[in-house]
């Protein structure tokens, strides 16, 4: 119990510090801001864009929203990148629609956004579910992806720890449910959103070694040493990808927040140069 409390305090401290930095940046930055929505498969998908320059598409995790990237947006925009932040369908300001959720469907949503913004090719950074979506995007729309960073992603459900696989069988309760109602933006729709998300988690993605080998984009796989995705699974992903490399970082599933400085350095270096010294 003490360990859980300690981890929670570290996480919330990291959130508060990084949110404060983000808010100061929003108040003082002169970066251009644009927002819009696209229609795909019976849902309106919302997005926000910051800055100008070469495009970086940031794909957030499941049961979250685009603001998950508050630790990364200022760094990328100030480095001269155009940052595109979709809300995954059913999350944030995007519609859920009537279709069952799949990573390929969400990848198609992202392609629609790139089309709307006349972005032929982008770097893609995905965290958790966003990393899974990035893999499908690079697999089925390879011409749209230049380089890619996937953080805490899995290419099949067996890559998740047994504890997490068990948690994916039922709805959230108590404080966790209250938090997700707010953080996802789903409110009273959380029950349906969570049910669809967890059905997807139990069966998808289902990529094989041959699928990963077909992903040509240089890809950095980042995983925490105490992540909900096993290090062995992430190592296998990096090995099977045509141009994959692996970086293991201290921490759990939320390293873009708890280890923001290190993660941001890795993202900037890899997208800028295509290599990461010390990765394997």
Automatic annotation (TrEMBL):
What domain of life does the UniProt record list for this protein's source?
Answer: Bacteria
Task: Give the residue spans that cross the bilayer.
Answer: none
Biological process GO annotation list? glycerolipid catabolic process
In its UniProt record, a GO molecular function of this protein is:
triacylglycerol lipase activity
Stored InterPro entries? AB_hydrolase, AB_hydrolase_1, AB_hydrolase_fold, Epox_hydrolase-like
Q: Name one Pfam family in it.
A: Abhydrolase_1
Span of domain AB hydrolase-1: 55-156
SUPFAM superfamilies per UniProt: alpha/beta-Hydrolases
Q: What is this protein called?
A: Oxidoreductase
Q: Which organism is it from?
A: Desulfosarcina widdelii
Lineage per the UniProt record: Bacteria, Pseudomonadati, Thermodesulfobacteriota, Desulfobacteria, Desulfobacterales
């Amino acid at each position: 119990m003490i360990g859980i409390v300690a981890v929670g305090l570290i996480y919330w401290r990291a959130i508060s510090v990084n949110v404060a930095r983000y808010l100061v940046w929003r108040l003082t930055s002169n970066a251009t801001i644009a927002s819009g929505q696209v229609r795909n498969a019976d849902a309106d998908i919302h997005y926000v864009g910051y800055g100008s320059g070469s495009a970086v598409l940031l794909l957030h995790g499941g049961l979250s929203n685009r603001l998950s990237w508050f630790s990364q947006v200022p760094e990328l925009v100030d480095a001269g990148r155009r940052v595109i932040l979709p809300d995954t369908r059913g999350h944030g300001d995007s519609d859920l629609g009537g279709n069952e959720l799949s990573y390929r469907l969400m990848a198609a949503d992202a392609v629609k956004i790139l089309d709307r913004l006349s972005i032929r090719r982008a770097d893609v950074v995905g965290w958790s579910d966003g990393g899974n979506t990035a893999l499908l995007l690079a697999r089925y729309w390879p011409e749209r992806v230049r380089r890619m960073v996937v953080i805490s992603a899995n290419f099949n459900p067996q890559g998740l720890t047994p504890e997490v696989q068990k948690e994916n069988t039922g709805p959230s309760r108590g404080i966790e449910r209250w938090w997700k109602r707010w953080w996802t933006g789903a409110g009273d729709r959380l029950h349906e959103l969570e049910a669809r998300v967890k059905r997807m988690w139990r069966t998808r993605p289902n990529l094989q070694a041959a699928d990963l080998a077909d992903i040509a984009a240089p890809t950095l796989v980042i995983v925490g040493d105490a992540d909900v995705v096993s290090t062995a699974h992430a190592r296998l992903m990096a090995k099977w990808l045509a141009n994959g490399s692996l970086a293991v970082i201290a921490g759990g599933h939320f390293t873009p927040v708890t280890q923001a400085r290190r993660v941001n350095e890795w993202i900037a270096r890899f997208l800028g140069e295509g290599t990461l010294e010390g990765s394997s």
